[in-house]
Lymphocyte antigen 6E-like (Microcaecilia unicolor), 125 residues
Amino acid sequence: MKLFLLCLLAAALSVKTVHSLTCFTCDNQSSNWKCLQPTKCDDSASYCMTTTTSGGIGSYTSFSMSKSCARICVPTNIDVGVAGTSVNCCQSDLCNYSSATNVKKSYLTLSVSAIFLVLLLWTGL
């Protein structure tokens, strides 16, 4: 009987509890303030993911943010001067609260691209 209780105790202590991740979620919002809705993720989700996209020239710019639960997440940061996208991943509850690491456009690259475009149009190419 003691052996049975000892085995039962050992089994109970070795069982890993499953804890669902909680992430902030939103879809295609223009501000982080609209992306602070906590959501309990499915048991299969291991990541909180934040995706940001931005682009434009001068005063014609756009920004979009989405946050979600994800099974797989690959951090990405692509910036081509006039447009960019980033994917940030984290693995703790409500870890995707900020968009501080979102895409930052390089104004030097933007200026050089605009000058190059003007020169192409001016020369007729």
User: Anything to note?
Assistant: The helical segments are 2-14, 107-123. The chain has one domain: 19-123.
